[in-house]
Structures are given as structure tokens and as C-alpha cells.
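User:
I study polymers; will you set down one protein's sequence and C-alpha cells?

Assistant:
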Amino acid sequence: MTEPDRRQLDGFRAYSEQLQVKLGALVEQGPELARRARAVQATETSPDGLVSVTVGPQGRVVRLDLDPRIYRNQDARALADLITETIEHAVWTAEDRVVEIMSGVADGEQVRAMMNGDDEQVAAIVDDQLRGRR
């Protein structure tokens, strides 16, 4: 066996051992972590305080509150943009909280890619891990 092959095999073994540890932690902690992740809610308020949005762990809007002062401005496009930006901030906050919850048993970048449905990124991360680049 050549030295590069031996290094690759050693990297694979190390990664395999890490996976076994993570799998054990996931089996043990998984149900509680999943419950906590499903319960995540994030609330963000626009800088002017006129829009408040609460989202769940998958970014679904749970609550939208508009301050009555919002009706003083007749710019519907500006209001729509403000609501959209506030929702985006709430989604990012919820995503960060789910990643934090899962960080003990999974790679944060991998969790984020999975949450966003980015299968190519997940595959690239796993490939990097298998090759010892992460």
C-alpha cells in the first residue's frame, strides 16, 4: 500500500470513528434534540418597530404584528419590503437556533445545508469529511 493510500485509509478510519461517536450521540440525544428543534420560534422586529414577525423552525410565519402607526405611510412597496426583510431576519435567527441545538451531534454547516434542501452541499461536506479535509 502506498503512503497516499495509507493516509487516505487512516483519514477514512478517523472519519468512521467520528461518525460512530456522532451516531451514538444522535441515537441517545436525537429525540430530545428533535423536540427542541421543532419547538424553535424566533421573533424579529423591524428597526423602526412597526413590524414584528415570529417564525417556526422551518421559517413558516407563526405571527405577524403591525403597529397601527404603519398606516400613516401610504407606500405599499416599502411596507411589503419591510415585512419581507423582517421575515428573513426571523428565519435566519430560527435557523441559527436549530443549528445550535444540533451542533452537539452534527456539523453546523451540514445541518444548515440540510435545512435549506441543498443536497449538493451536503454531499460535498460528507465527501470532504471522508477525505479528511474537514
In short: The mean pLDDT is 85. The chain has four helices and three strands. Residues 3-38 form the longest helix (36 residues). The first strand starts at residue 42 and ends at 45.
